[in-house]
């Protein structure tokens, strides 16, 4: 790899972030496993969702729709609408990770909100890659283990809301976005995206509000930058010329 | 549609969507404008995700509850340069406390 190695201190910092995101999502996995079994899926179907679908919002939508007696087609459609944003993350993650060939399969499978957020929170390319793989793997392992736990022993922890876990998730994403918001352009994109999502949310099915917010990034990319050093800010370090060498 | 069909179809489509971003040729993404857009896409989507997770509830439109208080505390902590874990724990503790007191 052409990227310089990370100092031990930074490595530890990034890995701690990866693990804490994994632990927080793991707590949700227990509740997912319990809900899934209560919705009528068996243990194997529940495990298949966490191992294969591996995208929290989509999984909760699938078991929610099945629990409510909805059609399988509706469950698949809602799951896919919610999962479409992972494909959009993939556009940028593919650039940061520089994966080729079969490595694209695990990279794609681990491309979710959490791994993307931890990756883009890091300033240097080596930390971005460590953040992506570290978070992807820690969430994958803990999410799957806690799914099994939840489906076997039930919702041992009770409602995650009771612990404020539903507030922890947006706070964590906000904290991970925070370092990027030092750039005025990124602040503008984040603000416009938030407004788009809030305006669209009451009128659109799940998944659409977040997808619609992509418009903010597209418009920002097309407009001339307001900052002289904006290209350095906007283009991640992973795309600087010295990083173009084959990995 | 049997349950297994639903599970496997949703999983297959989810993976196909995830893979989509990785099979677009890099040459298409390396232009100045396109790379500016792709660099901003996660910022836009995650920002939208934060407000959707904070201010919406299934079938209830926009709502302001304990999660909003948690996010406000998180932003304050971030402005005070609190570390990541502290920010997350403060947000969760705020929401949990408010709910224990019977609000949101």
Q: Would you give an account of this structure?
A:
The complex is a heterodimer of chains A (247) and B (104). With 247 residues, chain A is mainly α. Chain A has a domain at 8-168. Chain A is 70% helix and 0% strand. Chain A is globular and about 50 Å long. Chain A starts with 7 loop residues before the first helix and ends in a 13-residue tail after the last helix. Chain B folds into 2 domains: 1-28; 29-100, no CATH class. Chain B is 77% helix and 0% strand. Chain B starts with a helix and ends with a helix. In chain B, helix 4 (66-79) runs antiparallel to helix 5 (84-100). With 104 residues, chain B is mainly α.
Could you give a quick summary of the protein structure above?
Chain A has 247 residues and is mainly α. Chain A has twelve helices and no strands.
Present the secondary structure layout.
The complex is a heterodimer of chains A (247) and B (104).
Chain A: H1 8-38, H2 43-53, H3 56-67, H4 72-97, H5 104-109, H6 113-120, H7 125-153, H8 165-177, H9 184-200, H10 208-212, H11 214-222, H12 230-234
Chain B: H1 3-23, H2 26-29, H3 32-55, H4 66-79, H5 84-100
Helix pairs in contact in B: 4-5
């Amino acid at each position: 790899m052409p990227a310089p190695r990370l100092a031990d201190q930074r490595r530890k910092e990034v890995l701690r972030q990866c693990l804490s995101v994994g632990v927080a999502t793991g707590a949700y996995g227990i509740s997912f496993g319990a809900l899934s079994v209560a919705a009528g899926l068996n243990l194997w179907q529940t495990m298949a969702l966490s191992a294969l679908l591996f995208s929290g919002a989509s999984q909760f939508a699938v078991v929610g729709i099945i629990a409510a007696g909805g059609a399988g087609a509706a469950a698949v459609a809602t799951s896919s609408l919610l999962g479409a944003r992972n494909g959009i993350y993939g556009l940028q993650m593919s650039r940061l990770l520089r994966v080729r060939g079969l490595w694209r399969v695990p990279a794609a499978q681990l491309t979710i909100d959490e791994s993307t957020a931890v990756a883009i929170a890091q300033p240097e390319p080596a930390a971005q890659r460590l953040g992506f793989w570290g978070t992807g793997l820690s969430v994958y392992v803990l999410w799957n283990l806690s799914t099994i736990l939840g489906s076997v022993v039930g919702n041992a922890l009770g409602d995650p809301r009771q612990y404020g876990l539903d507030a922890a998730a947006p706070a964590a994403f906000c904290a991970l976005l925070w370092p990027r918001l030092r750039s005025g352009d990124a602040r503008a994109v984040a603000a416009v995206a938030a407004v788009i999502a809030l305006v669209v949310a009451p009128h659109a099915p799940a998944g659409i509000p977040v997808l619609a917010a992509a418009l903010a990034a597209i418009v920002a990319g097309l407009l001339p930058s307001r900052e002289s050093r904006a290209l350095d800010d906007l283009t991640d370090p992973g795309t600087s010329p010295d990083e173009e060498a084959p990995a | 549609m049997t349950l297994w069909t639903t599970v496997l179809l949703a999983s297959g489509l989810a993976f196909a969507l995830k893979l989509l971003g990785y099979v677009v040729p890099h040459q298409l993404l390396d232009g100045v404008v396109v790379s500016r857009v792709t660099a901003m896409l996660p910022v836009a989507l995650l920002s939208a995700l934060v407000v959707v997770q904070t201010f919406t509830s299934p079938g209830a439109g926009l709502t302001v509850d304990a999660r909003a208080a948690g996010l406000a505390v998180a932003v304050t902590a971030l402005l005070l340069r609190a570390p990541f874990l502290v920010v997350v724990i403060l947000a969760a503790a705020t929401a949990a406390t408010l709910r224990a007191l019977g609000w949101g």
